[in-house]
Amino acid sequence: MQFKSMVISNVEVSPAYFRMRMTAPPAIVEAIPGQFVMVRVRDAIDPLLRRPFGIFDLGTFPTEYTDCGRQTFCEILYKVVGKGTEMLSSLHHGDHLDILAPLGKGFAVGDPADEKILVGGGVGLAPLYYLAKELAKNSRVRLFAGGRNKEDILCITEFERLGVETYVSTDDGTLGASGLVTEVLEKHLAEDTGRKSLFACGPFPMLKAVAGIAGRHDLECQVSLEAYMACGVGACLGCVIKGKNHSDQTPDFRCVCKDGPVFFYQDLKWD
Ligand SMILES: Cc1cc2nc3c(=O)[nH]c(=O)nc-3n(C[C@H](O)[C@H](O)[C@H](O)COP(=O)(O)OP(=O)(O)OC[C@H]3O[C@@H](n4cnc5c(N)ncnc54)[C@H](O)[C@@H]3O)c2cc1C
Ligand code: FES
C-alpha cells in the first residue's frame, strides 16, 4: 500500500532515538512482525529516496482522527543518523508523510511450544517489539538487549509489560551486564538447554555472532538484516546480499527488501 499518514506523536525516548506514531489504513494490521515501511520524509527532491524502518508497533486508536478519517496507527522507533532521520525527528503532530507498507518478508513464528529468544542490538530492538507482542500470546519470550551504553537500551519496560523476561547488557557496563549481548546469550544457552528458537536484529557483526551461536547449539534462528535501499520492492537490486549457494561461478544473490529483511541464518553466506 502507498498512503498518506499523519504524525500523531514523535517523542525522543533516549538521546537521538525517537518513537513516532502515525495514522495508517486499517489493512496495516495484517502486517507481519519483521516487515518494514518506506517513508518519504518530505515532499521535495532532497532527500529523494524513501527511508526504510521496521514496524515497531501497530494498533487502533480509541477515537477516530477525523482530519484523516483513520483509526489505525503504525509506530516506528528510529535513530537519528543523517539527513532523512534528522528531518523525521523535527516532525510534529499533524504533519504528513508518504508511506509504502507493509514491505518484505517478516518473521515466521514457528512452534508455540518452543521458547522464543529475541536478541536486539541498539535500534535493532525496533522490529522485535511487535514480534514480542505476537509471540507472547502463545509462547514464553525472553529478550536479550544490548547496546554500547545505557542510552542504546530502548523501551525495555514496554517489553516487560508484555511479560517478556529481559536481559540487558552494555559494552561499557552503564546498564545491565557488562559485555556483548552475544556473550550474555551464550552464557544463558549453556545453562538452559530446553527447546528454543532465536530471532535477532541489530548490527551485522552481532547477527553473524548470533548465527554462529545458533549453529553451535543447533537452534532455529531468523535474522533481520539492514541494507541500503532505493526502491524497497525488489526492482533496483540495490540491496543484494550473498545467499548460501553463492560462489564466483554460481552467483546467488538475495534482495534484502523482497526476499528479506528476515532470513533463516542458514540461507545466507556469512563471509
Ligand atoms: C529493512 C530495514 C529496516 C530498518 N529499520 C530501522 C529502524 O527500525 N530504526 C532505525 O533507526 N533504522 C532502521 N533502518 C536503518 C535506516 O533506514 C537508516 O538509518 C536511515 O535510512 C538513514 O537515513 P538518513 O537519511 O538519516 O541517513 P543517511 O544520510 O542516508 O546516512 C547516514 C549514515 O547512516 C548510514 N546508513 C544509512 N542507511 C543505512 C542502512 N539502510 N543500513 C545501514 N546504514 C545506513 C550511512 O552509511 C551513513 O553513515 C532500517 C533499514 C532497513 C534496510
Ligand atoms: S531496494 Fe531495490 S531491490 Fe531492494
Automatic annotation (TrEMBL):
InterPro entries: Cyt_c3_hydrogenase_gsu (IPR012165), Dihydroorotate_DH_ele_sf (IPR037117), Dihydroorotate_DH_Fe-S-bd (IPR019480), Dihydroorotate_DHASE_ETsu (IPR023455), FAD-bd_FR_type (IPR017927), FNR_nucleotide-bd (IPR039261), OxRdtase_FAD/NAD-bd (IPR001433), PyrK_electron_transfer (IPR050353)
Residue ranges of domain FAD-binding FR-type in the record: 1-109
Pathway: Pyrimidine metabolism; UMP biosynthesis via de novo pathway; orotate from (S)-dihydroorotate (NAD(+) route): step 1/1
Cofactor note: Binds 1 FAD per subunit. Binds 1 [2Fe-2S] cluster per subunit.
Binding site for [2Fe-2S] cluster: 231, 236, 239, 257
Cofactor(s) annotated in UniProt: FAD; [2Fe-2S] cluster
Pfam name, any one: NAD_binding_1
Signal peptide residue numbers: none
Keyword Transport among UniProt keywords: yes
Superkingdom, natural source: Bacteria
A molecular function GO annotation: electron transfer activity
Binding residue positions for FAD: 84-85
Keyword vocabulary terms for this entry: 2Fe-2S, Electron transport, FAD, Flavoprotein, Iron, Iron-sulfur, Metal-binding, Pyrimidine biosynthesis, Transport
GO annotation (BP), single: 'de novo' UMP biosynthetic process
Family stated for the protein in its record: Belongs to the PyrK family.
Function: Responsible for channeling the electrons from the oxidation of dihydroorotate from the FMN redox center in the PyrD type B subunit to the ultimate electron acceptor NAD(+).
Subunit record text: Heterotetramer of 2 PyrK and 2 PyrD type B subunits.
Protein name: Dihydroorotate dehydrogenase B (NAD(+)), electron transfer subunit
Name of the gene encoding the protein in the UniProt record: pyrK
